[in-house]
Amino acid sequence: MSLTISRTIVNAILEQSRAEYPDECCGVILGPVGSDSPIRLKPMVNAAHSPTFYEFDPKDLLALYREIDDRDEEIVVIYHSHTETEAYPSRTDIAYAGEPGAHYVLVSTRKEIAPATEFRSYRIIDGVVTEESVDITD
Amino acid sequence: MSIEVRIPTILRPYTKDQKTVSAEGATLSAVISHLDSQYAGIGERLLENGSLRRFINVYINDEDVRFLGGLEAPVKAGDSVTILPAVAGG
């Protein structure tokens, strides 16, 4: 298992995580159905506006699913940032993980490693977290 | 005329991988009961202690049922019910 993703998208997510600090940032990367290719970055509003929680607004969520249905896309990646902790799924992340086909990406902007950043990817299925490798392409 | 219910990926194991199924009922609660009678177990994934689970969003047509009366929200033939897992975490 692995995630292959372009450096442009990785950099854009890291930039978003710094811009929205101290709140968590979130979003999705979409790709054609069945491709497993994260191609179209779509940052989402964190309706919780919180340093410890993120949530897509239910209206935005419905609009997102309608949009990807119309475009024959699927959610390839669901990402969010951890602002003060490791880029590893929290208990809440695991409890909420509702897309068994998606790669769950976490980034961290925690001070201990600044200005470096973490960018890690997981599968979360039936409460089980499995980290996977990330191949960044130029 | 029945009600179209759109099923998210995570619940499709209950519906034999069908993305859209039909159900009947005059309220969301009745629709969920009817769904569960056809696809055993799906009701429990939607409800907890008689309320909609917090991790689940349900819409009637384009409106979040939280603003329509929750489980008592009225549903009529031809309506479309969409179920989506919340995207959230900590």
Question: Any key phrases for this structure?
Answer:
heterodimer; A: 138 residues; alpha/beta; seven-stranded mixed β-sheet; 24% helix; globular; B: alpha+beta; Ubiquitin-like (UB roll); five-stranded mixed β-sheet; 8 strands; 18% helix
Summarize the structure in words.
The complex is a heterodimer of chains A (138) and B (90). With 138 residues, chain A is α/β, with parallel strands linked by helices. Chain A has a single domain (2-137), classed as Cytidine Deaminase, domain 2 (3-Layer(aba) Sandwich), CATH 3.40.140.10. Helices cover 24% and strands 38% of the residues of chain A. Chain A is built from three helices and eight strands, in the order βαβββαβαβββ. Chain A has helices at residues 7-20, 58-70, 91-96; strands at 2-6, 26-32, 40-44, 54-55, 73-82, 103-108, 118-125, 128-137. In chain A, strands 1-8-7-6-5-2-3 form a seven-stranded mixed sheet. In chain B, β5 and β6 (63-64) form a beta hairpin. Chain B contains two helices and eight strands, in the order ββααββββββ. Chain B is globular. Chain B is an alpha+beta fold. In chain B, the strands form two sheets. In chain B, strands 2-1-7-5-6 form a five-stranded mixed sheet, covered by helices on one side. In chain B, strands 3-4 form a two-stranded antiparallel sheet. The A-B interface holds A 26, 28, 44, 48, 52-56, 58-59, 61-62, 65, 78, 80, 89-93, 95-101 and B 8-10, 55, 57, 59, 62, 64, 66, 82, 84-90. β4 (54-55) of chain A pairs antiparallel with β8 (88-89) of chain B, so a sheet runs across the interface.
